[in-house]
Amino acid sequence: MEITLRGIAVSPGVSIGPTYPFQVKFFDVPCRDISDVAAEKERLTAAFEQAREDLIQLREQTRDELGDRQAAIFHSHLDMLDDVAFKPEIERRIEEEKIGAESLVNDLITSYTRMMEQIEDPLFRERSMDFVDIGRRVLQNLLELEQESLEHLEKPSVVIAHDLTPSETTNMDMPNTLGIATDEGGPTSHMAILARAFEIPCVVGLRYLTRQVSPDDQIIVDGSNGYVIIRPDKVTLAYYEKEKQRIEADRLAFVESAVEGPCMTQDGQEIHTYANIELLAETKHSIELHCQGVGLYRTEFLFMNRATLPGEDEQFHSYRRIVETMAPLPVTMRTLDAGGDKVIPNLNREVELNPQLGWRSIRLSLDRPDIFKAQLRAMLRASVFGKVQIMFPMITGIDQYNESMQVVREVQDDLIARGVEFDPDVKFGSMIEVPAAVMIADKLAEVCDFFSIGTNDLIQYCLAVDRVNPRTAALYQSTHMAVLRMIKQTVDAARKADIPCTICGEMGGDPVLAELLIGMGITSLSMSSVNLPMVRAEIANTRMPTAKRLAKKILDMGSVSAITSFLEERHMNRDTLHLMRNKSDNTRDQ
After folding, report:
1. Which residue, 1, 10, 274, 551, is most buried by CB atoms nearer than 10 A?
2. Residue among 263, 448, 501, 504 flagged as catalytic
3. Does the annotation mark 202 as catalytic?
4. How many angstroms separate the CA atoms of 386 and 333, rounded?
5. Could you give the 3-state DSSP secondary structure of residue 2?
6. Which residue from 23, 10, 529, 507 is spatially nearest to 227, judged by alpha carbons?
7. Of 248, 281, 301, which residue constitutes the final position of a domain?
8. In this predicted structure, what is the pLDDT of residue 471?
9. Is residue 461 part of a domain?
């Protein structure tokens, strides 16, 4: 019987195939009495040293394949392995209880896991997998067992798991991994980030998925909408097989037909198309898809999945590799956008009643000048290796932007005094993500070098809708008239001040909206690299006078459903190869 579950969509696309349930083995851990305490402590030390060697090897392998950002995760594992309380606590119990080390390590893992299960914050629970990963590694060394791995799958399969640790994810057999679905996890987990980088459809947060599947069950993963269908019936299977074929054919056709260089409308208007990135691995793919630079480099992911904050030099080396890889194309770096739904465990974990309205983004940076200045120094140092722009997230006023720029000037003066090179012509801009910034966009434009409209947060704050709450998901509407008018007001302010204005949220990568946004005056779109071919093809099929008439018509309409239906029907009738978003009524939810 067909079963449909809904979780969190973290990597788009459709995968169909047999399941490969990956279950962490519960070791038979003996509780041994010991007489030689010194020898047992030596066993423990050897297990820790072996774990250290393995983690160093994983770190180097990850750096070579994916870059510094991912490698930093295993940096943090090494830090946790050296935690002042971890090993000494086990040694103390060996001395006092005269019990074998493996039993004590297992106790520590079990108690920690139970404690984490009681924490409501899903983002913090994601980070707990790092500790479990390290504990298992030490335990397996003590028991002289082979490390569990997804490195070699016998056949192409959909990996099913309760959750996946960073080590398990890094060693995954990517060519044979059709899709990923897990009980736990969230959009910022290591596994989710990696799935997006490799374009593997992935759904997480499915709660009881692992209880409902058996090995080789047929399963569908709809990574665009967050659905997983177990043992689909013929009708559902036929629909998704057709959908999968269409997506793959359209994507291939887009890639093959993509034109290198500037992206032009039919009547010669250039529209810049940039990539949103998190990882070094994404830069190569973005270049292959003819992006014209990076419109959003999410630097906060360098701060996540780790036990300690990255220092200036570590950040510099990460930024430098991104900039060098993209050169001579521009890279727009966003300063730390922590807080809200992006929890940095090392910063203040004080519970906030309204985290999306609290201590986050530029507010956090200005309150922590030590962190802010270290990041700015690293960014400016990297600027000599290519073309860098820097933007501040969640700016709400002129004073806040000016205060940020004062910190920039202090950092520049410090670098000059130390004789450290940087590009003095780096451009600085503001993200437009809150209604307050829209209302004063004309004044902000007088002091900014550029604008970048972050539509994900702008929609959330404009419509007072939590964008990660499934109960209000239907109210999160990119085609709401208020949202469209805010975008138009921002674009007009930027144009009047003669500064560039880019859209870098999910709207920027939606081919259905491309013609409308161009007609509203947007000349730069930044998106996930997977969307570049479709959007570039849509732009090439656009004429400016027609796009402007469309924008005028839409901005005079009121109903969200009417606007959405009109745009989708128009997009289909334009007879362009496209990737339409799946509609909820086309997905069977039983």
Report:
1. 274
2. 504
3. no
4. 12
5. coil
6. 10
7. 248
8. 67
9. no
Flag whether 95 is in a domain: yes
Is pLDDT of 360 > 90?
A: no
CA distance 519 to 550: 7
359 and 398 belong to one structural domain: yes
In this structure, are residues 426 and 380 in contact, taking their beta carbons and an 8 Å threshold? yes
CA–CA–CA angle 465, 466, 472 (5° rounding): 70
Distance, CA of 459 to CA of 450 (rounded, Å) = 20
What domain range includes position 239? 3-24+149-248
Is position 492 within any domain? no
| 578 in active site | no
Nearest to 159 by CA among 186, 135, 183, 133: 183
Q: What is the pTM of this model?
A: 0.69
Do 131 and 180 sit in the same domain of this protein? no
**pLDDT tens, residue by residue, 260-283:** 678 999 999 999 999 998 878 788
Q: What percent of the chain has pLDDT over 70?
A: 84
Collapsing DSSP states into helix, strand and coil, what is residue 479? coil
Kind of pairing between the strands at 294-298 and 272-277: parallel
Return mean pLDDT, the chain.
Answer: 85
DSSP 580: P
Strands 524-528 and 501-503: parallel
Q: What is the pLDDT of residues 34-45, one digit of tens each?
A: 999 999 999 999
Handedness of CA 457, 459, 461, 464 (dihedral sign): negative
Strand-pair partners of 180: 159, 202
- Identified catalytic residue from 75, 162, 190, 285: 190
Helix, strand, coil shares, percent, the chain, to 5: 50, 15, 35
Residue 172: what pLDDT? 84
